[in-house]
Structure formats: structure tokens, C-alpha cells
Protein 1
Amino acid sequence: MRLSILDPANFRFLSVGDSCAHYGEYTSGGGFGASETNQQIFNLKKSPNAPQAQLHWKLRAVAYWGEVILTSAGLNLDVCATDVTFVPIPCSKPVGHPEHDDRMLQVMRYVAQRKAGIDVRPLLAQSAARDAQHQGNRLDPEGLAATLQLDRTYLQVPLRPYVIVVDDVITRGASFAAAKSILSGLPGVQAVHGMFLAKTVHAPLEWPDLDIDDAL
């Protein structure tokens, strides 16, 4: 798996000049059996309230995606260790909520524990519970930004010049656009980039077999 550049034109809320990249492809509606990426995304998203047997697979997924970031081509970890601050996108529930899931923070802390110098900061926090984007009630970037708050305790040490926002799946780019709008103006930040474990793709339509005589 390789970190590949995304074309902003393919995502509704990305702007020309946005620098975002992804690793795998998540097939929308394909279920966990559609691909290894689908399975590992499903496992990563398991609720923190799931039975212990299922949480075993969630922890395995954290390690899986951490190793993808550590070993895949396309991301210079030596440069990241000196010039980049990674900011995980928070889940749709605030800290303290029974369904709060810090899965992206877990993935990036896995990376930081194995690569010296990696700077991971949960700068963004959910201020109130909302529906998850994939559950259908999708907010636009302005709506998402209104639900986020900046934890300034993580600004006591200056941010590095490049911030990489990290999320699991990009579908329209709303979460990245919301995060970028908050992080871009912080002291010392020269650019905000996006890194995603997967991008959403859609399975091709399967047309029914037609009798050519009936079709004419």
C-alpha cells in the first residue's frame, strides 16, 4: 500500500490547492468482505462499547493502520519527525461520552511509539455529540467546524510548520475542510495537509442481463 495524492476536484469540499493523500480504497456499501481495506476500516470503527472479543479486532486494526503508515511508501517519516505535527480528527462524540472513540489518536500514537520525533497532538475536540458523518446526516465544513473546539493546552509547545490532519476515510472532504479552517491560522503553521487511511470508492453498477430482442 502506498500513500497516493488525491485530486481535489473529486471531492466536493476540497479546494484547488488542497494537499491530501490516502492509502487504501474503501468500497461504499461493500461491507467488510469487499476488501482488506474495508475489513480493517470496519474493525477500526468498532464501538468502544463492543464486546471484548470484538475490541480485540479493533486493537488489531489500530496496529494494522499504524504499520501501514510506518512501512508504506510516500511518507517521509524522517522529515515528519522534525517538521510535522499530526492532528487526528476526533470522533463525533465528546470526551466522556460512552461512545467516544479516539481511534485515530490511537493509530497515530502507535506510530509515535515506534518512530522517534513524531509529534501527535489531539488539538481538536468534539464540543457536543452529533451524528457520525457516515450515518447519513452529513454536515458541511461550516457545520462541522461549529462542533469542534481547539484544545489550547496543546499549543504551549509551538506547532511545527506543517500540520497533517489524519482521518480514517475521506468521502467528500468536509472534515478536512473544517479542521483546516481552524488550524490554518495558528502561530507557526505554514500549511495544513490531509492524510487518510482510505478514500471512498463506489462499486460499479451491475446491469441485469438483457435479451437484445426485448431491448429493441
Note: The CA atoms of residues 41 and 168 lie 7 Å apart.
Protein 2
Amino acid sequence: THECLLMRQSLKQLLLQLDPEEFRQIHRGTVVAIAALDRIEKDIFGRYHAILKHQQRVLAISRSFSGQFKPL
């Protein structure tokens, strides 16, 4: 099961409270837990996608945030 939380603060404020070793921003409004990632894939157009564990859900990684994942 998944838990949904409603927070009344900006994503920028939230990111300041999160450990950057455990969480990464991948898009303007999306942050993922590193532990939830199965893998990062690059498509034929050079775009990166995060594939989540257990759900096999694919999330787009924007160009502005893709640099932090290229070494993975």
C-alpha cells in the first residue's frame, strides 16, 4: 500500500530537508527515493527515464536533472 501525505510547503523547501544521498529531484515537480529506483534508462533520443522497483513504473527525467544520473 502507498501512503499519501499533503504538505503545505514548496518542493524547494522540502528538498532542503531531504538527504541528497537518499532523494533526487528528477523533474520540476518530481522527487524520488534512490532506494525506490530499479534502474535508469536512456532512450534512442537521449532522454533518461527512471524505472521504479516493484511497480515497473517509468518516470521521465528532465534534461535539467539528467546530469546527476548519467554516471549510474
Note: The helical segments are 11-17, 63-66.
Protein 3
Amino acid sequence: MTMQLVTGNHAAGHSLGLAGESNRTARGAVCGIYPITPQTEIVEYVARFPFSKGAVVPVESEHSAMGVCLGASMNGARSFTASSSNGLAYMAENVMVESFFRLPIVMAVVNRTLGPPWNIWADQGDSLMFRDFAWIQLYCDTSQDVADTTLLAFRLAEDPRILLPVMVCMDGFIISHTSMEVELAEQEQVDRYLPDCHVPHHLDNSHPTTMGGMTFPQETLAHRKELHEAMSRVPGVFEEHRAAFTKEFGRDLKGAVTRYRTEDADTIFITSGSISTTMKKVIDKRRERGERVGMVRIKMFRPFPVEEIRDVCSGAKKVGVLDRNCAADRGGIFWQEICAAMQGQGHPLIQGYLTGVGGSDMVPRTVHEVVDDLLERTEVGEPVWKGMGQ
């Protein structure tokens, strides 16, 4: 492994390329590509990668890019792509199809605000609009996390107990275009870590079958139940592959939920993505003042880590959820999930904060304001907007 100063986009492209190349002894790799800011550098990196057995297919739209991945995966290849924002929205039909077909495609998502009005800065609304589409969703907080999680995503998606597609998400520009020191994997390591991709229901000319044909309600019911059951297996399988990652690469890959200074905390803040690094520094400062505050960073949004959240929040009096997204009239999406998870659990005060929506800066001063607001609260109020006008 080599330590290099690279962007999050470079880290994602590097891991996608190595993962594709590692399937050269099986049915190879295919990547459908179409550019969109701020993810373009990922597909540019992949387009230059010297695959021994693979194809990078430039197309006329994001819908077609995902269509290429769909066809390749149906034929048993290791398949992947990347997108952002309205490009991701344009993929919607095929995004749905892939999960319903149980195709283990990996997609790097650089979170960017949906428009109009047009905005190229970070907002998680683009990936979160697919939260009910049976895609595993993993949110990264550093470029190292992007590089490592992308590799794990292939092993998780292709595991025969799972066979579901995976989104690996990072905040646009804040991570995608910021250079950080990253320990990049080498091809030999990835070859050992990733088994050959095997899609058990791939198309076979010697045994013609129909995929996606008409079904009756009872078959659809059974299909949705299978998706539900596969999703429920993800946390345990994720931990298995995370342990294998540590054994192969010699470093820890962050889990579905990361706790920070929560052991004696009576006030807990829940974050995801790049805001987590800022929140961590603020927690340290508040601890110096004697305040019993802690932080939970959620990496795995789908499936949602209900048991972990209940465990960490069970002793808290107050919980603040920082969302870089907004569901109109309902507030933050992570906040909604936290409230649902804690239902019937001796509910602490759970306050939602809309932070960094549309890419507004979440500087330490703004995060301190969130902490001040929650510490002073005696009851839950409407979601609090932070970052406006800064």
C-alpha cells in the first residue's frame, strides 16, 4: 500500500478500477459512464484504467450509463458506475430495476443538491430519494473511508446472502475535491480480498430464461419479502467483510455506526458524512467545558441500524440529529429515521437540525450553535435551520 495525497474522487476511482481488474479471471468488468459535476473525475479515472478484461462504455445519458451496468451485471460481469444530483435522478428507472433484479452493482454517489434552482454543492437529497429502492446506502466521512468502503461494497453486494446493489456516498466538493492523505490499496491486495464475481441468475444462452416478466400479486409479494429479508442480513454480513478487510489491509474500516465519547453522555448528536469530522472537534471542545456530550456517526443508512441506535441512545436525555437534507414539511430524513427507531424506547428528547442543506458551510461556530440550542431545550420543537446566510 502507498500513502498518497489524493481527492475523494481519485480514491473512489482507484478502488473501482482495482475492483474491476480483480475480476479478470472471471467475467471481467464493465462501467457505464456519463459525466456530471462533481463526480466527473471518478469516471475519468476509470476511463483511463488499463483493464485486462473489461469495458468502459461512454454513453449519452445517466439513464443509459446505468442501463449499461444493468446489462453487464445480468451477464455476470462486475459492474459499477458513478453519478450525482439530477444525473442520479435521471437514472431512477434503472436504479429501481437493478435492485429488483438483485444485481450486485456498485455506484459511487457524490452528493450534490438537486435542482432547480441549480446548485452544485453538497446535499444528500439525491441519494436519499432512493431510500426505499432496496439499495444498500453507505455514507463516508473522509477520502480514506471512500477508498476502503468502495472495496468492501463489492464484497458485500456480491455475497450470495445479499445480492443487492450498493451506493457509496460522499459529500460533493467537501470530500470529492479535497485532497487528503489516503493509503491506497494495491492490486494484489484487492485480488486477495475480492472473490470472483458470481451472479447466480445471470443470463445463459444454453438455458434461456426471462427476467422481469409479468407476475401475479402473490409472486410480487414473495419477491418484496425476499428483498426485505436480504436487507435484514446486511449488517451481519457487513461486519464479516469488515473484519476480513482489516485482516487483509491492516487497518480498521469504519463500521455501520461509530460512537465518540458516548459512554457517559447524556446529550448525543447524530451525524453522517463530512459534518461528522467537524462535530467531533466540537465535542472535544465542549467536553473541556465539562459538558457530557457525545457523538454518533451513521455510515449505514440502508438498512438502517435500528438496534445500534437504540443501544447508544437508550441512556441519553437529549438527542440532536444533524441532517444535510430536507424532506419538505417533514424535516431531516435521518431525524425521521431516528424518531422511528426510538419509538417505544422510553423516548429521549429528539430534536432535528437542518444543517448544511444546499451545501451551506457547517463551520465549528455553527455546530456550537446547534449544541447550545439542544442543551437549553426542555421540549422538542420544529426542525431548526442552520447555515442560512453564512
Note: The longest strand covers residues 349-355.
